[in-house]
Amino acid sequence: MDVAEFAAAYLVTIELPGVQVDGIRVEVNEERLLVSGSRPSTECPTDGVEQGGKAFYHCKELSQGSFRAQWPLPKNTNVDAVSAEFMDGFLRVFLPKHRN
After folding, report:
1. CB 69 within 8 A of CB 37
2. What is the pLDDT of residues 25-67, one digit of tens each?
3. Cα-flanking dihedrals φ and ψ of residue 23, to 5°?
4. How far apart are CA 32 and CA 41, in angstroms?
5. What pLDDT, on the 0 to 100 scale, is given for residue 70?
6. Considering only CA atoms, which of 69, 65, 87 is closest in space to residue 21?
7. Rounded CA separation 68/14 (Å)
8. Phi/psi at 22 (5° precision)
9. DSSP 18-42
10. CA 68 from chain center: how many Å?
11. β-strands 83-87, 90-96 pairing
């Protein structure tokens, strides 16, 4: 997770490769941003490999299963104006600041 601060807003970027948009939940309240969901398991494709055999992994480092990321919100965050977009495996959450 990356968190950047600009003059008028915060931008939280979370890398979520292999996750579908319907597998992501974004919650915002006065105290925190919470992003959670699940990443499907990845199995080795069997096309072109002996059919019916199960793969034996020598190394398995791809993330799978549930995930959770949270960030405590600064007091000047306008939680009523938060927006998010998910594109190319990146979730970007825009958290505007209150105007003074």
Report:
1. no
2. 999 999 999 999 988 776 655 555 555 666 777 887 777 889 9
3. -100, 10
4. 29
5. 96
6. 87
7. 11
8. -75, -5
9. T--GGGEEEEE-SSEEEEEEEE---
10. 8
11. antiparallel
- CB atoms under 10 Å from CB of 14, counted, come to 22
Residue 35 to residue 15: CA distance in whole angstroms = 11
Query: How far is the C-alpha of 8 from the C-alpha of 99, rounded, in Å?
Result: 8
What does pTM read for this prediction? 0.80
Token duo for residue 84: 């998010």
Residue 73 has pLDDT above 60, yes or no: yes
**What's the first-to-final CA gap in the chain, in angstroms?**
28
Other C-beta atoms closer than 10 Å to the C-beta of 39 total 18
Task: Give the separation between CA 34 and CA 22, rounded to whole angstroms.
Answer: 16
State mean pLDDT over 6-25: 94
Q: Please name the residue that has the structure tokens 């960030």.
A: 71
Edge-to-edge strand list for the sheet holding 2-5: 2-5, 9-15, 90-96, 83-87
